[in-house]
Design a protein that fits this description.
Blueprint (H helix, E strand, L loop, with lengths): L5 H17 L9 E2 L8 E9 L4 H11 L4 E4 L1 H6 L1 H9 L3 E4 L12 H19 L5 E2 L10 H7 L3 E3 L3 E2 L7 H11 L5 E5 L11 H16 L3 E2 L2 H5 L4
Parallel strand pairs: 1-6, 2-3, 2-8, 2-9, 3-4, 5-6, 7-8
Helix pairs in contact: 2-8, 5-6, 7-8
């Protein structure tokens, strides 16, 4: 068999690395999941980048429909808005680790990656009493050293089945995309913050939740936390 031409080999290697860094099913840099079992009509609604000033409005909508969600929180935002982080926990939702300062982990040192995860883990636990079991990388970008950090902190990486792009699309577009992407075991990703911005504009996310939750309930889906979705009680 002939070897690939040099440029083709470089292209193939680049594609493989891009998949390892951001591919939703990739576990090259640490254990990761992107969906739950397909044998139950259940899915997980997740939120990244919070807590934010708009998070309480999302919590009210979830409470109205009595559904659970998983919030992947940034440690810096938890330090800024500890009372909102505690409200997420008090309402029975699951809290995940989304790093401390929301950096790209791509090209970061293993020590720097571990520090981001550890600092967020300690901050979330200090303010809420909850020690996260799940981690989602900012921007979905992973790198060397992440797997070791996750193992040290007993964190399972979580990607998504569908992401809403709720920071750049209109609510009707986000709702349509997420509703079309719903399936048994799906993990849906929205954002109740915008990285580390203060008072982020999350009106699109709020409106999406207001319309998406009843739509999927009407289709017979049950909303579960990531932990419950991956390990349903018998």
């Amino acid at each position: 068999m002939n070897a690939l031409p040099p440029l083709a080999a470089v292209g193939a290697a680049s594609s493989l690395m891009a998949w390892a860094v951001r591919g939703r099913s990739a576990s090259v840099f640490g254990r990761s999941v992107w969906r739950g079992p397909r044998d139950r009509r259940a899915l997980a609604l997740t939120f990244d980048d919070g807590p934010g000033e708009g998070t309480p409005e999302i919590l009210e909508i979830l409470a109205e429909y009595e559904v659970s969600a998983t919030f992947f929180q940034c440690g810096a935002n938890v330090d800024r808005l500890p009372e909102i982080a505690c409200e997420v926990a008090a309402r029975g939702h699951e809290i995940g680790n989304h790093s401390y300062s929301h950096p790209y982990l791509f090209l970061r040192s293993p020590g720097g990656i571990e520090n981001e995860l550890r600092r967020a883990q300690e901050t979330i636990e200090w303010h809420t009493g909850i020690r996260p079991a799940f981690f989602r990388a900012p921007y979905g970008a992973r790198w060397f050293g992440l797997g070791r950090a996750q193992r040290k902190m007993q964190l399972t990486g979580v990607m998504w089945s569908a992401i809403g792009y709720d920071w750049s699309r209109r609510a009707d577009e986000v709702v349509a995309h997420m509703a079309a992407s719903a399936s048994n075991g799906a993990i849906l990703c929205l954002h109740d913050g915008r990285e580390l911005r203060e008072k982020p504009d999350v009106r699109t996310t709020v409106e999406t939740v207001r319309r998406l939750v009843p739509t999927l309930l009407d289709r017979g889906y049950k909303f579960e936390t990531i932990g419950r979705l991956l390990c349903p009680k018998t």
